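Example 174, ligand adenosine-5'-diphosphate.
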Amino acid sequence: MCDGRIGVYPGTFDPLTNGHMDIISRATRVVDHLVIGVAVNAGKEPMFGLTERVDMVREQVALMKNGDGTIIEVRPFTNLLMHFVEELGASLILRGLRAVSDFEYEFQMGAMNARLNPRVETVFLMASENHQFIASRFVKDVAIFGGDIATFVPKLVEQRTMRRLQEMKGASAS
Ligand code: ADP
């Protein structure tokens, strides 16, 4: 693939939030090549399909200021995260940590992945204070109940979320 340190930032990104974008820009300071892995995650019944989520992340990442020359790629994955990481030749998994509530899940996932491949390290990054509380799950709830999500997500995500809600309303009315 390329020289340098390759890291994977996996997630569902349903939808992409300013919290995710904060972690993505921090991750570019840690690795030379960042692969944002968009998980299919059918179990979570996503609001957006896999291709839509990949497109949203790609479009937003293309608008990012990326001064330090880190290569950023956005790829879907449907297999086991560790297999995806190994296929890419990555040495790091990057995850974001919000409140204490994330800790147990992330701790277990990190430990499982360490068992699957001890050569791959999981690194946790923290978003800035004003982004830490943002979660895709709550963004969807706020939007569904008519609240303003403009400060939680990038503009294009806001527009697509509003459009998706209109489509959902149209579908349930017919
Ligand atoms: P997953 O389904 O894997 O949890 P998410 O899209 O919800 O996927 O999150 C992907 C990663 O981004 C996770 O490590 C999550 O903790 C992190 N993350 C999400 N929102 C924030 C935020 N506001 N601040 C820091 N990390 C975040």
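Summary: The helical segments are 18-27, 50-62, 81-88, 100-116, 136-144, 155-173.
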